[in-house]
Amino acid sequence: MDQQPFQPIRLVDYQPPEFLVERLSLCISLAADHTLVRATSVLHRNRDAAKKSGPLLLSGEHLELLEVRLNGEKVAPDAYRTTPESLEIDTVPDDFQLEVVTRLYPDRNTALSGLYRSSGMYCTQCEAQGFRRITYYLDRPDVLTRFFTRIEAEAESFPVLLANGNLVAAGRLPQGRHFVEWDDPFPKPSYLFALVAGNLSQIEDSFVTRSGRRIVLQIYVEEHNRHKCDHAMASLKKAMKWDEEVYGLEYDLDQYMIVAVDHFNMGAMENKGLNIFNAKYVLASPETATDQDYLGIQAVIAHEYFHNWTGNRVTCRDWFQLSLKEGLTVFRDQQFSADMDSAAVQRINEVRTLRQVQFREDSSPLAHPVRPEEYVEINNFYTVTVYNKGAELIRMLYTLLGEAAYYRGFALYIQRHDGQAVTCEDFVQAMADASGRDLSPFMRWYTQAGTPQLTIQESWQQEQGLYGLTVSQQTPPTPGQPRKVPVPIPLLIGLLDDQGNDLTATLSGDHERRGDDVLLEVTEAEQQFRFTGLTSRPHLSVLRSFSAPVKLHSFRTRDELAFLSVHDHDLFNRWDAAFSLSELVLLDLVTEDSADRDERGISDSYLQAMQSLVRSSITDLSLLAEALRLPTENYVLQKLEQIDPDRLYQAYHRGKQELAAFLETDLLDLYRKYRSTGAYRFSREDVGQRSLCGVCLDYLASLAAHRTDLTELCRSHYQEAGNMTDRMIALTAAVQLEGDLREALLADFEQAWHREPLVMDKWFAVQASSSAADTVGRVEKLLHHPDFSLNNPNRVRALIGTFGQNHFHFHHHSGSGYRLVTRVILELDALNPQVAARMAGPFVSWRRYDGQRQQQLRASLRSMVEKPGVSRDLYEVANKSLGDQGEGAG
Ligand code: B3K
Ligand code: ZN
Q: Whole-angstrom Cα distance, residue 818 to residue 826?
């Protein structure tokens, strides 16, 4: 029972490669039922490697090896060995040419890693370790080489043949075939290789760089989607300009290509010069995409573009350093989005994700440092911790060093390491050298898992006008790290007087400033800060802009939060005060004794605070919408020692209804004021209006069960909708209601959009997220819908991924939710392990539930671990979850 079928890879075991590749020439010939790959490389023994002799070991999976030649001579079969994961050649000289011919079957590749087919076209996904499914190779990020790629295919079905770099030759071949040759002048690791072959249409545009070079920009899609690429193209051009202006970075190749594919394991991939994208992050039209889709496209297009420098030109030494490129690139795309749209709303959404998803991961059996120390399957580490907490680390450096030193450090990093594969230390060292600061304590953020908790105590001495803060930090244990050390925390604060005036500028003391805020550097387990020159006790606004990824131990009274929600000059903190207040109120409702549950409702002061928000003069309507939106059930539950899903659900919805009833007139007024049925524009103002109307309708719909006027409001919102944003707002509201309206709208929607896969994903997802009583049964039925397929990750995420986040129904006391998802995961694991492992996320925190649920969740996890032929992906997630490390409430 306790055997470990998969051995972990450890950071401490890292060794430089024994061989380096001078160049690689690939000839990839696509045939009807298979593909032939001839890989010719020039290799040299690495003088810096520990071992100076020995065999050549190449990685390879799911390959048929047809031929191996060394310096032109066939290698005898007894001079090499293959395993399911490798090719080992016994004797090789120090410098040689190697030729490897392999056969593969892309049509059978359901894992979507390596070369596979999606809706007729061929495409690749090589990060992290997909290249080894194309040929035997030194498939590791610290082996960089120049790639030359020749593609051959049948001309009529595959007129478009793409690879990285510049197009250098093309021509016809016998029997209706043709070829294209691509040369990528920039050395790169194999994970950045890409190939696309298909019958694709394109839109083309250009961008002139600041040094005057004209770059051709192309987006390739299926012909019927050609009209949905304009937003992606506009986003790309904005990103290119922004990176020049803000980071001084210019694009390097002459051509930049993006291809949209229907079947994709994640969002997109930054392959050099040839990004491959999940169609979800390319295609948009007002009829088919929501405002959130538009924003997502803008962010992901920018993210992949920014990787050209942070990831491609400077890459990772090994996969443990993943956050070197991902954390940094996420931070850059967050800066970009903040500059494009409402900066406060952007920050709010980042913090929502951190708190709701990353903090939860950090307190679960899957907690790991931003730079993990070991993994069984690297694909399991493309996590919110590596990405989003990783981005917070870069943001903290930005805050600590200040803008000027940060950009100097960044420039130094690029200048030092262009063309290299480096580590997180290298990045932090460049920041240290450029700022003259010792940043070695900062490395703890990379190595220590878990979310630090800050406790803050205030003191006030009226006579001296002395205000003091005692700040202490403590990080709870995580699996494998029982003891924690303090980390350096940049704490941005502000002080307000009773009228809400910001006193920060007039404070005496030698506190460092960052814009309008004071910067406190918390480095010890406990530390004191003093402020003088005050005439009355100030109001503290702390952790402004969420300056560090920490939990704030609640020390503020509700009155204080209500005050800040109206007066704080930091817009993020204003939102945060309202959000924290809502959280406290919801927690009260969940934890109060059932005996007096009916008597006690929501406090008047909270209702008043929310009402003054609704009536406030906030002109950024997106921000107002965010301030009104309640924390989700999935957020609130983090504060509960033991989670009772039924009680949480009831309390949550009761609180929401009570608030909605109190605010009804105000919400209706706002709704009527901003409801617009004019032509769709993706502008800040219009997005804000739609978002605000959406929040209002969501509250109002919670009262609609016995109110025909409100049901009619949902119906008319749907019927008058001139774009997908409004249509989804109405459908989401209607789906919470059981009855005719829901059925009518769902049927109408399906009928109208069944030919649009990305829109149908929304149809599946909205049903899986419903709070209505019959949700499990509906999801079960949808599994048998003709449009449901386990082979399409977007569809699986829409139905199963969304259902897993539907807290109440997934945790239904009957266990029916668990059984449904387990069944799907076990079946999916044989097809697509990466996605199967992701779907297991909702089982991970089983210890937080009651005995019966624990038993059921554990049985599910066991069935995954014990499944014959389980993938390393699913095994690692399920096995770690079962592991003996505890999970505490935060
Ligand atoms: N680098 C890719 C992610 C690859 C995931 C492999 N399982 C997308 C991105 O972060 O830009
Ligand atoms: Zn990325």
A: 12
